[in-house]
Amino acid sequence: MYVDEDLLVYDEVWAAAGLPDAVFPISPQDLQRASGARAVDLKEE
User: What is the number of domains present in the chain?
Assistant: First the structure.
């Protein structure tokens, strides 16, 4: 699992859980921690 390191500069991001009404705010750091994701540079140049 990966998280784009550029997201880590934001205070809050919105995540989804598969349904249109299952959207929730979370800090990128908490999302990374909860998912076990590794922060990497994912942007194309």
Answer: 1
The distance from CA 19 to its chain's CA centroid, rounded to whole angstroms, is 17
Task: Write out pLDDT tens, residues 7-42.
Answer: 999 999 999 888 889 999 999 999 999 999 999 999
Q: In sequence order, which residues have a C-beta less than 8 Å from that of residue 42 and are 6 or more positions away?
A: 2, 4, 5, 6
Q: pTM here?
A: 0.78
Tell me if 15 sits within 8 A of 1, measured CB to CB.
no
Q: Which domain holds residue 36?
A: 2-40
